[in-house]
């Protein structure tokens, strides 16, 4: 289907499990993700990401080692599309 929308172009998106490289202390912090199955020393980022708000209205921020799902778009833009723990 995408091939018909983008003739002559084959979109390439990579989805990889990784972990946060640093403790995040503010929603404005840059985020870097490590993908251990790729290279434990390679950091991807800065990544676009979203904080969460818990049931009490408190902003929840990821910490070093928290699992993340990293997507690299066809324009080589890294995004964190999901992270755990919730």
Question: What key phrases describe this protein's structure?
Answer:
two-stranded antiparallel ribbon; 43% strand; mainly beta; 86 residues; globular
Provide an overview of this structure.
The chain is mainly β and 86 residues long. The chain is 5% helix and 43% strand. The strands form two sheets. A five-stranded antiparallel sheet has the order 3-2-1-6-7, with no helix packed on it. The mean pLDDT is 89.
Largest sheet: 5 strands, antiparallel
What is the total number of structural domains?
Answer: 1
Distance between the termini: 33 Å
Coarse shape? globular
Number of helices: 1
What's the helix-strand series?
HEEEEEEE
Strand order of the largest sheet: 3-2-1-6-7
Number of strands: 7
Arithmetic mean of pLDDT: 89
Query: Are there runs of 5+ residues with pLDDT below 50, and where?
Result: none
Radius of gyration: 15 Å
Which class best fits the helix and strand makeup? mainly beta
Brief account:
With about 90 residues, this protein is mainly beta.
Summarize the topology.
Elements: H1 2-5, E1 14-20, E2 31-35, E3 39-47, E4 52-53, E5 59-60, E6 67-72, E7 78-83
Antiparallel strand pairs: 1-2, 1-6, 2-3, 4-5, 6-7
């Amino acid at each position: 289907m995408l091939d018909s929308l983008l003739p002559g172009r084959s979109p390439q998106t990579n989805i990889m499990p990784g972990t946060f490289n640093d403790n995040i202390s503010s929603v404005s912090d840059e985020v870097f993700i490590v993908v251990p199955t790729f290279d434990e020393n390679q950091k991807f980022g800065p990544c676009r990401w979203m904080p969460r708000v818990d049931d009490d209205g408190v902003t929840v921020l990821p910490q070093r080692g928290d699992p993340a799902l990293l997507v690299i778009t066809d324009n080589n833009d890294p995004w964190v599309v999901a992270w755990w723990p919730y």
